[in-house]
User: Fold this.
Amino acid sequence: MSNHTVSATFEFKDASSKDRFIEFCNSDNGLKVTRAWPGCESIECYEAQDTPLKVTIWQKWSNPQSHESYVKHRHDDGSFDFLGELIASPPDISPLRPVVFETDQQQIESVIRDMCHKDHTVGLKHMHKDCVFIRPTGNPLNNEGWQRMMNDEAVTVAASELMTINKLRISDNMAYVCYTSQAMFTYKGTVNDDVAVFTSVLEKVDGRWQVVFGQRSTGRSPAAAPPIFC
Assistant:
């Protein structure tokens, strides 16, 4: 799970209120408690250059649950009641996530390229924990089963690459992709050189596209007529 970043902005009533808050932060019950809280990775404090009474506390947590337990503690110990006496308006506490400066289509195309990588662990990071993959036999594999199969000593991948993306459609936080790849691999001593068509369904979870379903066609020889998509 990726870390959890939170921005908390407070605007104080006056300089005296801000000073009281600073005294609290420097006390034994202040930021010392925050930094020692399980899951707290870092905390930094800033003030606006044009509005010194506005203070932003930038926090990084290992996961949302750690931050939630910390906030509950501050409610229970009365810290938020104390803060309410000092600020001019309700605090703005916002969880943040990294921005990927790529279009959804570019992000999905990148995911598909990784899914076709020779090293299966490169694509694995894009697979949702509840992902289901259907093999040409019709038998399903979950995430754990996929890893177990690809880590089997009987499987050796010599090469794998994306050939074409045949169809890509995006609707809000869901997308589907049909693509063709070529892979050379050995399974139980038998060498295969296959061109196969895949279908993947992706969902955007916490701002990141993840594969939630996949299906592979039976492989064909590279010398055979390629599949044609209108």
